[in-house]
Amino acid sequence: MGAVVKILIRIGILGFDTSHAVHFTRRINHVGVPRDQWVEGARVVAGYPGEHSSFVSDEVLEERTKEIREAGVEIVDSPEALIGNVDAVMLEFQDGSQHLQQAKPFIEAGIPIFIDKPFTCSVRDAKEIARLAEENKVPVFSSSSLRYALEVQDLKSRRDIGGILGVDAYSPGPTHPKNPGLFNYGIHAVEVLYALMGPGCRSVRCIHDERWDKVVGVWGDGRIGTVRAMREGVHGYGFTAFYEKSIFHCSIDTRYIYRELLKRVIEMFNTRVPPIDIGETIEIVAFIEAALRSAEKNGLELTIQL
Predict the structure, then answer these.
(1) What is the Cα Rg of the chain in Å?
(2) DSSP alpha helices (H): ranges in the chain?
(3) What's the mean pLDDT when you consider all of the chain?
(4) pLDDT in tens, 180-208
(5) Of 125, 49, 44, whose CA–CA distance to 89 is shortest?
(6) CA–CA separation, 162 vs 236, rounded Å?
(7) Which H or E run includes 90?
(8) Strand order in the sheet with 212-219
(9) Region of residue 156 (left: phi > 0; alpha: psi -120 to 50; beta: else)
(10) CB–CB of 260/148 below 8 Å?
(11) Cα–Cα distance for residue pair 283/146, rounded to 1 Å
(12) Residue 202: helix, strand or coil by DSSP?
């Protein structure tokens, strides 16, 4: 019998205005990173950088395009040029308000898609992507890489510490007009919160200051989860998790978060089964949207609108 040839998933990268486009490509294509960062089963074969971006300068966009081309990726002239030439797409444009418009042609073409954070900047757009995905029977996945931090996954796999009672999560929280509130960067802490707590938050209040946001979420069963998004002082990622039988204080090591996220992305491209129910992703958008409205109302507690 001849050797079995494993077919690699052909990935298209859409948008280079985040450094993720470079970091993800290098890990998937095994270029410019140590072997322990490699992710198997796919290859980035084509990419569209986009034109001007309000997130980075034209010079940065050009440099990233050069780096991605050097990783063996064909640079195409339009998003549409990816259709028919790739098996899956990773949407990496940073502006979450444009993700519905950018993702729609690929979903309608039946192409599995990973949408980098933020999934969208409104519940309305998030629900529409979910509707399109269901209508076209296309798997869609969105997540911060922090959800798959080894420290988070280790706790989720344990069976000796009882149920989760609450979480206090933190991350840097720089903002951007295109991705208001926690949509821009504080979403990392929100993803850690949801990874450990699971969905089911019923209300949110946000104490806002130019230096930080502190968000308190109350789950339907009475559990409380909080997010601190920091714009002043020492920045880092971590959490305190309260279980029935133990309390864990964890500072997150970010060295392997991209690798761990990409494992799940490529697995979804292969199996066509998203690792997270899209309903949880919609709730995360609703959590952030409610926090933004609460901040505008001086910390008023608001019910999450799904």
Answers:
(1) 19
(2) 20-29, 58-70, 99-108, 123-136, 150-157, 187-197, 257-271, 278-296
(3) 96
(4) 999 999 999 999 999 999 999 999 999 99
(5) 44
(6) 27
(7) strand 88-91
(8) 247-251, 238-243, 164-172, 224-230, 212-219, 201-209, 302-303
(9) alpha
(10) yes
(11) 17
(12) strand
Structure tokens at 22: 């470079």
Q: What backbone phi and psi angles, to 5 degrees, belong to 39?
A: -125, 135
Residue with tokens 């133990």, as numbered in its chain: 246
- Most distant CA pair in the chain: distance in Å? 70
Residues 6+ apart with CB under 8 A from 6: 41
Chain segment 74-109, per-residue pLDDT in tens: 999 999 999 999 999 999 999 999 999 999 999 999
Nearest to 110 by CA among 79, 135, 77: 135
SS3 content of the chain, % helix, strand, coil (to 5): 40, 25, 35
- How far is C-alpha 197 from the chain's CA centre? 17
- Phi–psi pair at 199, nearest 5 degrees: -75, 175
DSSP 2: P
Contact between 269 and 221 (Cβ < 8 Å):
no
Give the distance from CA 68 to its chain's centroid. Answer: 21
Cα–Cα distance measured from residue 122 to residue 279, given in angstroms and rounded to the nearest whole number:
14
Q: Is the dihedral of CA 198, 204, 205, 210 positive or negative?
A: positive
For residue 105, cis peptide bond before it (omega within 30 degrees of 0): no
Say if residues 7 and 43 touch (Cβ distance below 8 Å).
no
39: tokens are 């992710």
Supply the pTM of this predicted model: 0.95
**Which residue type does 213 have?**
D
Query: What is the torsional sign of CA 133, 137, 142, 147?
Result: positive
How many Å apart are CA 95 and CA 179, to the nearest integer? Answer: 6
Instruction: State the burial class of residue 77 (Cβ atoms within 10 Å of its Cβ: 0-12, 13-18, 19+).
Output: exposed
Name the nearest CA neighbour of 182 among 152, 208, 145, 200: 208
